[in-house]
Amino acid sequence: xxxxxxxxxxxxxxxxxxxxxxxxxxxxxxxxxxxxxxxxxxxxxxxxxxxxxxxxxxxxxxxxxxxxxxxxxxxxxxxxxxxxxxxxxxxxxxxxxxxxxxxxxxxxxxxxxxxxxxxxxxxxxxxxxxxxxxxxxxxxxxxxxxxxxxxxxxxxxxxxxxxxxxxxxxxxxxxxxxxxxxxxxxxxxxxxxxxxxxxxxxxxxxxxxxxxxxxxxxxxxxxxxxxxxxxxxxxxxx
Length: 238
Prior knowledge:
By secondary structure, the chain is an all-alpha fold. Helices cover 70% and strands 2% of the residues.
């Protein structure tokens, strides 16, 4: 059988197969089309939800503090309401963190801590997770829980060492250690901050410690001959 006849036979067989499976193929094409259409609609709706959530978040954040009108800026409850209404969106997640910040500003430290905890637990990979962890430490410090605050600050430094929050945690931790008369440890932390954005504050506190404890000042210069015990310097002969 020639190659032309073989190709012709294969073409006839394929056409026969198409005729037999035509309904199945059409049904499969319809299913694929519905899936693609469904995914497109889902993505469009998701984008619309994100846009609406972002718009509401910006509207709340524009409520700036105004002493003349008695406005203290956005309230924590406004952020929490938004987080509930736009659950599952990025803006809804951010609103939990912002609610924690607002509660702290209002002096409601228990509520602030609870929301910082909720945010970092639900969003461990979020860039703001380190700040939320530091927020927990700040709440503990504000409520006088010194030992717990020390542990929380150490946790921030250990888990998020390269974050901006780690530098804040070091500054806070150093202050807490000073309050416990652990000046040497505090001094070490302040020295670690001398090349950060907190350098001025760290240097001011460092100098204050050294003024109270001159014995902690670094001694990098080698001793002179007269300071070395047992060494007598003989003047050269004239």
